[in-house]
Amino acid sequence: MKNNIKVGVIGLGARGMGLLTAVILPMDGVEVAAVCDKYQDRGEAAAKAVAEKGGKRPFVTRDYREVLALGELDAVVIGASWADHIDIAVAAMEAGIYAACEVGGAYSVQECWKLVEAYERTRVPCMIMENCCYGRDEMMVLNMVKQGVLGDIVHCAGGYHHDLRSEIAFGKENRHYRLNNYIHRNCENYPTHEIGPIARILNINHGNRMVSLVSMASKSKGMQEYIRKEKSGDAELMQTEFMQGDIVTTVIKCAHGETITITLDTTLPRYYSRGFTVRGTKGMYMEDNHSIYLDDMHEEFHMDWKKQWGNVERFREQYEHPVWKKYIEEGVKGGHDGMDWLVFKDFFDSVKQGTGTPLDVYDMAAWMCISALSEESIALGGHPVAIPDFTNGKWMTR
């Protein structure tokens, strides 16, 4: 058991820098010994933030391989672009360093296998930092499911419903990788916010698994409309055709018969939502109207559903997840309503204790491969595509 660990932070754009200042630096027993970004100014800004927090100035580099070669790190936090996540995670495991990998989608199934094979070769843990698995409502519903309150779970849904038009359109100015992805790809490009909490509900990789998917994409019109309205002076973007469909719908079948629907919705005007929905034989939870419906409690309202909208708070005392009960008592910290703090605390606790991580490479591979497989299904006109078993059969007994 280590009381103090040294970490490196690789990738210091908006997400990486936000995590550094709001979560990593305030965490007890964690020293940031190295920072890395391909843009020198970002690395220098991060080093300054570490020094201002009271730590010594960290090692600064533009090459992540120099971070891994230091020989003194216990872990690295990977917040680089989607296309770099898996390569850096594999290199970290091969260097004997725990890897905390920010979320995104894979570009091929092969790179997901590469990730799994690196872990099985090195036995060095790698954790996908899916903060939505630690959301207050997501964990309360998980607690209800484990207690049988919603009965036998039949169907779940989720979405990444987030208006990102400004972030995408100003990708060149902000040095953000989303722009190129939306120009060149058409897929469910950000699946883990949706699939992570659902995978825990359905015991994916722990007695159940996802076996196949079908994806369809709408036409792409949202970005062109936004650019005409907000960035008409950008001659290059005005002439750009975006491949990414405005709405991508993916339906997944599980080994035990459950279905999952996930939706990518990021280039049309809308409010933010993850659309988290759980349907069971005894009731349901729905994020978009913040409601729980139980068969033996609310059946008289089934034709007047609005009377039950917003009723989740009534269930807190009985079903709040123990993790959140303790968290609220101690004081919620960090970003994204406290989710970031919880996911990083779990990771750093695993590093200090030298144990496996609660979300592992098998979860990471299964969730991230959905991007590559949805791209294939869309290209084939909605053809079903098999989802690999990255556990090689161990899902039945893990």
Automatic annotation (TrEMBL):
Q: Give an example GO molecular function.
A: hydrolase activity, acting on glycosyl bonds
tRNA processing as UniProt keyword:
no
Q: Which residues form the Glycosyl hydrolase 109 C-terminal domain?
A: 139-307
Q: Which residues form the Gfo/Idh/MocA-like oxidoreductase N-terminal domain?
A: 5-127
Which family does the record assign? Belongs to the Gfo/Idh/MocA family. Glycosyl hydrolase 109 subfamily.
Q: Which cofactor does it need?
A: NAD(+)
Q: Tell me what organism the protein belongs to.
A: Paenibacillus albilobatus
Q: What's the protein called, per UniProt? A: Alpha-N-acetylgalactosaminidase
Could you confirm whether the keyword ATP-binding appears in this record? no
Keywords of this entry: Glycosidase, Hydrolase, NAD
Ranked from the top, the taxonomy reads:
Bacteria, Bacillati, Bacillota, Bacilli, Bacillales
